[in-house]
């Protein structure tokens, strides 16, 4: 049978095996998939599988891995109908967001999946995820980079890992699922990316220059140590900051060190994006006096974007060699429905 789908195995629980120190990535997944999916394989689209070397626990993810994935997709883009990326759940939301920005309205189906329990262990969720991902990857064009997990297809640019213990490990708190994969799968076509969203070939992303350490995250809490600001300001490799503020986008407006940080960051051409620490709702600039003036100081509005999406969008914009001014100018382009407009 000609393979319609290419599976890229990056590591993660789905392909892990128990070892002396706990679960660890293991090569040879093709054989284990064939064993575990058994006779159902005859009813599913054919696939080839490539294993990355080294396979990683996704806690070890770096932006370089996104570039490696883009290069592999570019190399095999014309040969397959769809692609499945097997990935650890810990940083799945980052990689799915990064690939959403790289590909825009993807010309090929690119679906992430993983599992909470490794393939082959009792009560594993891996078989159902693989089966659903294979069917969707070889099916009609979806346009969104997606995540197949626990009987749902979710938008890759909106994901959060919401549970380390439960089978429904992922959610898109500010967006509805793209599909419900019940006995009769229901695809919500109106929620998929539309014609107005640009498509990008993965070779464009493979040619980008992702810089480790280019983006930092700063989550506000009462009485911030000023040394945190100094460290960010002194680090020339750090070009942008995702500021996770309180509630509707509020900052400690009476904190002189914080106010100085915002001014000095602008003077040093560091881009700051404001998002909310809340799981839902995003920021509402201007709603409170405590956040007044942030926009005038060049702080960008992250709306209801997830921290992962804001982080990856900044990385993607910077990897294209943009200046701080160009990042600011391009920030508001909705690249993959990552934000409610
Ligand atoms: N630590 C694992 C990983 O992210 C967790 C998982 O895959 O569920 O690689």
Features:
binds aspartic acid, Rossmann fold, Asp/glu_Ase-like_sf, 341 residues, Asparaginase/glutaminase-like, 4-stranded parallel β-sheet, L-asparaginase 1, 27% helix, Asparaginase_C, alpha/beta, asparaginase activity
Q: Identify the CATH architecture of the largest domain.
A: 3-Layer(aba) Sandwich
Strand content: 15-25%
- Overall pLDDT metric: 97
Fourth-level CATH superfamily of the largest domain: L-asparaginase, N-terminal domain
Helix-strand topology string: EEEHEHEHEHEEEEEEHEHEHEEHH
Order the strands across the largest sheet as they lie in space.
Answer: 4-1-5-6-7-8-11-12
* Residue runs with pLDDT of under 50 for 5 or more positions: none
Tally of discrete structural domains: 2
In DSSP terms (H or I, runs of 4 or more residues), the helix count works out at 9
Largest sheet: 8 strands, mixed
* Amino-to-carboxy terminus distance: 44 Å
Domain L-asparaginase N-terminal: 5-187
Domain Asparaginase/glutaminase C-terminal: 215-328
InterPro entries: Asp/glu_Ase-like_sf, Asparaginase/glutaminase-like, Asparaginase/glutaminase_AS1, Asparaginase/glutaminase_AS2, Asparaginase_C, L-asparaginase_C, L-asparaginase_I, L-asparaginase_N
GO molecular function: asparaginase activity
């Amino acid at each position: 049978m000609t393979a319609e789908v290419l599976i890229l195995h990056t590591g993660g629980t789905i392909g892990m095996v128990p070892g002396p120190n706990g679960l660890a990535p293991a090569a040879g997944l093709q054989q284990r998939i064939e064993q575990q999916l058994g006779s159902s394989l005859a009813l599913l689209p054919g696939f080839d599988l490539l294993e990355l070397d080294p396979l990683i626990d996704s806690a070890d993810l770096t932006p370089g891995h996104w570039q490696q994935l883009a290069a592999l997709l570019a190399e095999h883009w014309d040969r397959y109908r769809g692609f499945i990326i097997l990935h650890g759940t810990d940083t799945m939301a980052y990689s799915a967001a990064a690939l959403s920005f790289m590909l825009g309205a993807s010309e090929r189906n690119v679906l992430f999946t993983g599992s909470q329990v490794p393939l082959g262990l009792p009560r594993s969720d891996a078989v159902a995820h693989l089966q659903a991902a294979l069917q969707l990857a070889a099916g009609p064009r979806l346009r969104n980079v997606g995540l197949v997990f626990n009987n749902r297809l979710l938008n890759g640019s909106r994901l959060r890992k919401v549970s380390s213990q439960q089978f429904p490990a992922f959610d898109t708190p500010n967006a509805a699922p793209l599909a419900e994969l019940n006995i009769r799968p229901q695809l919500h076509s109106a929620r998929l990316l539309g014609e107005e969203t640009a498509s990008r070939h993965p070779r464009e992303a493979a040619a980008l220059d992702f810089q480790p350490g280019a983006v930092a995250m700063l989550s506000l809490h009462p009485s911030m140590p000023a040394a945190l600001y100094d460290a960010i300001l002194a680090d020339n490799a750090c070009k942008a900051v995702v500021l996770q503020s309180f509630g509707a986008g509020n900052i400690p407006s009476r904190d002189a060190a914080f106010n100085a940080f915002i001014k000095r960051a602008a003077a040093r051409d560091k881009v700051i994006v404001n998002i909310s620490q809340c799981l839902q709702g995003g920021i509402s600039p201007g709603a409170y006096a405590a956040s007044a003036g942030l926009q005038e100081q060049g702080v960008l509005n992250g709306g209801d974007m997830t921290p992962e999406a804001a982080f990856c969008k900044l990385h993607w914009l910077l990897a294209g060699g943009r200046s701080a001014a160009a990042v600011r100018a391009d920030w508001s382009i909705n690249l993959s429905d990552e934000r409610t407009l």
